[in-house]
Write a structure and sequence with these properties.
This protein is an alpha+beta fold. 23% of the residues lie in helices and 28% in strands. The protein is built from 14 helices and 37 strands. Strand 33 (652-655) and strand 34 form a beta hairpin.
């Protein structure tokens, strides 16, 4: 997500200097420069430019020892055209002007006779990029022949980490492993609004510092993967190296290492940079690409030897400003994704086969965006790639606008269509998909933007449907779900429904609210059960079972609460919730049903200002569902005037403790002066209350019905 989650689609490394290249490998790989190296009897060097782009290139170097075995080596060459090494792997590279020295990385210090050691690096160039023509290994020219040597006896170089018992893999695992790995990542959780916060540090958006205890608790909840969004923009040096602050990079690595130690699959990315500076790529392509490549070059070096459970995601919610349209957007995103792929793969080590995640434009599941990503996958032809999209529900339902108060057939079809598109494009072809973020854009607001039962039905169905399509899902959590220090869920019903959906289905119902008007005699009430493959087992209040035939009846999927039971349950008929029932099913979690007493809400006249206009409202046990706004001629008033139904919480919000409904400044910003507006407040009981307002400058007058 971009922004603070409420906004809708939202040790410094100096790579060009000698001290830098050493720092890069010491920090990133945990290795030190080899000790005194012995002379080589003869050697052969193969230097190949694996790929080249404007201002940059990747080179692979192989050193073959043609003489006696050596233990510890230094290869020296001089660049002929001012090139510079910016990042290296499998060797410690230092530079002095045009002269470059590559020393073994510890684990590859020993080269037997006729054996080869290899390393690689990314470099920069301008003008031309010719290959070096002369190399020396431990002071001996590499001519392809041998000469006698009387060098010092072999020595074992020190290493800060134990050398691997086997060399890093160089070939991809068998086809299907990526699908299996992504399946093992289900379910996933986002550590949102922490390292992705735009500001000085991870607390800038109000969350506390990440702790090992937090990650331990997330793991204990049953989550198997964790997405750690990271925003880098405030922690980068200037061009051309764009060095990441050492302290910040170390902090990211610390959190990643904690998560890996917990057994998580871990995904890191470039996050809010997508809308901070990457989005300017249509008009600033060279600088954007240079900065983007520099970040991934550094991250590839840092995490090159990290567990294969670490996954890289190229960029979060990619977007472009000022482009010529879809075709250019697709071209630019393809360039970012392929550049990311090239840099990571060329860095070697575990990155040679590391799982890489590529997004669609905006991480949208719309068919054109999916087709564009399919084309990139076809070109890269890499079995260790994962496609990703995000899903925040059918938009009118997700934010409660345009009458989208229910998880109805339209909202469900949007969900199934989105999942089906990525399934058909990728999963059906053996390419795994991760829905890297999911949720509802308004469901975490405290005022009830999304009604609780409708919210739970969405999450029950989403979890079930994604599971049937073999898609891994990662819950977006910016701190509103799992307390970062209390380790308690703010909505136990939500986490209960989520956990159930990971393995089975739960029964739900057409509503979780049964209203009884205080002004009327109590009558029987019927709701429809959504069995979802379960069987209904009964109704319970607390630990007491209600009696079928007396308290309720069931006919097919119709559950009827009798008048006598409702009379007993409502007691003195105080406004609000009088009783809570649990509908139990053969599997999954129970469905809560609140029994309420209400009367038609009452509003009174008021005056105020456009900055925040409060309508006095006696809710009398009822709950607000939505609001319409129209002018006398029937046209729609306020923002999003393509619909009469305004966006909950953005334009209006109820406060049940202070008994007001507030109209926001955003609403009045798009209301015509001196033109009366009729408001129709829809309540969950079915009641509709009419109110009229008139704006005059910054003054607002409101009158009842």
């Amino acid at each position: 997500m971009t922004g603070l989650r409420g906004t809708l689609r939202r040790t410094r490394w100096r790579l060009s200097l000698a001290a830098t290249a050493t720092t890069l490998l010491v920090i990133g790989l945990g290795m030190t420069v080899a000790g005194t190296a012995q002379a080589a009897a003869g050697c052969k060097v193969t230097y190949a430019t694996a790929s080249q782009w404007q201002g940059g290139f990747t080179a692979n170097v192989s050193v073959t020892n043609l003489g006696d075995p050596i233990n510890g080596w230094r290869l020296v060459w001089t660049f002929p055209a001012g090139q510079r090494v910016t990042q290296a792997w499998s060797a410690t590279v230092t530079s002095s002007g045009d002269q470059v020295t590559a020393a073994d990385a510890g684990y590859n210090a020993a080269i037997a006779t006729n054996a080869t050691a290899s390393f690689g690096f990314n470099g920069s160039w301008s003008g031309t990029n010719p290959a070096p023509t002369a190399f020396t290994l431990n002071g001996v020219a590499c001519t392809g022949g041998t000469t006698p040597t009387t060098g010092p006896p072999p020595s074992t170089p020190p290493a800060t980490t134990p050398p691997p018992t086997t060399p890093p893999p160089t070939t991809p695992p068998p086809a299907g492993d990526a699908m299996a790995a992504v399946a093992a990542m289900q379910p996933g959780w986002n550590l949102g609004n922490s390292l992705d916060a735009v500001g000085a540090d991870e607390t800038a958006w109000g969350n506390p510092r990440i702790t090992e205890a937090l990650l331990d608790n997330v793991r204990a909840q049953g989550f198997k993967s964790i997405r750690i969004p990271v925003t880098w923009s405030a922690h980068l040096g200037g061009a051309p190296s764009y060095a990441i602050e050492t302290a910040y990079l170390n902090r990211v690595k610390e959190v990643v290492d904690w998560a890996l130690a917990d057994g998580f699959y871990v995904m890191i990315n470039i996050h809010h940079d997508s809308w901070q500076w990457i989005n300017t790529m249509p008009t600033d392509r060279t600088n954007v690409l240079a900065k983007y490549n520099a970040i991934w070059t550094q991250l590839s070096g840092t995490f090159r030897s990290s567990s294969t459970k670490l996954v890289f995601e190229s960029v979060n919610e990619p977007q472009f400003t000022g482009s010529s349209g879809d075709a250019q957007n697709a071209t630019l995103l393809n360039e970012l994704n392929t550049s990311f792929h090239r840099i990571v793969r060329a860095s070697g080590g575990n990155n040679a086969t590391r799982l890489l995640v590529l997004p669609t434009l905006h991480t949208s599941a719309d068919q054109p965006r999916v087709d564009e990503l399919v084309a990139t996958f076809n070109t890269l032809n890499d079995r260790n790639l994962i496609a990703t999209v995000h899903y925040y529900g059918y938009w009118p339902f997700s934010v409660n606008i345009a009458g989208g108060t229910h998880f109805d057939a339209t909202a469900q079809k949007d969900l199934t269509d989105s999942v089906d598109r990525v399934y058909n494009a990728f999963v059906a072809r053996g390419i795994p998909v991760i829905i890297g973020e999911y949720g509802l854009l308004g469901f975490d607001r405290s005022t009830g933007t999304i009604e609780q039962g409708e919210k739970l039905k969405f999450f029950e169905y989403f979890g079930y449907y994604a599971r049937t399509k073999k898609i891994t899902t990662m819950l977006w959590d910016n701190g509103q779900h799992l307390g970062r220090t209390s380790f308690q869920w703010s909505d136990p019903e939500l986490i209960g429904q989520l956990k159930s959906s990971w393995t089975t289905r739960s029964g739900t119902a057409s509503t979780d609210l049964v209203f009884n008007a205080k002004a009327s005699a109590i009558s029987a009430k019927t709701i429809t059960l959504n069995l979802n493959g379960t069987t209904f087992q009964g109704l319970r209040q607390g630990s007491t079972d209600l009696v079928q035939g007396t308290d309720y009846t069931v006919s097919g999927s119709q559950l009827t609460l009798t008048a006598s039971a409702l009379t007993r349950l409502t007691g003195s008929r105080a406004y609000g919730v009088n009783a809570t029932l649990s509908a139990r099913f053969s599997q999954g979690v129970p469905w809560r049903i609140n029994v309420l007493t209400y009367d038609r809400p009452v509003q009174t006249n008021a005056t105020g200002t456009t900055s925040s206009f409060a309508i006095p409202t006696q809710f009398r046990g009822d709950q607000l569902a939505t609001m319409e706004a129209t002018y006398a001629d029937g046209t729609n008033a306020g923002p999003q005037n393509w619909t009469s139904y305004k966006e909950f919480d953005r334009t209006f919000t109820p406060n049940y403790s202070t008994n007001v409904i507030t109209l926001t400044s955003d609403f009045f910003a798009e209301v015509t002066d001196a033109k009366p507006v009729t408001l129709r407040f829809h309540f969950w009981s079915g009641e509709i209350v009419t109110y009229r307002i008139t704006k005059s400058g910054s003054t607002v007058t409101g009158t009842v019905g």
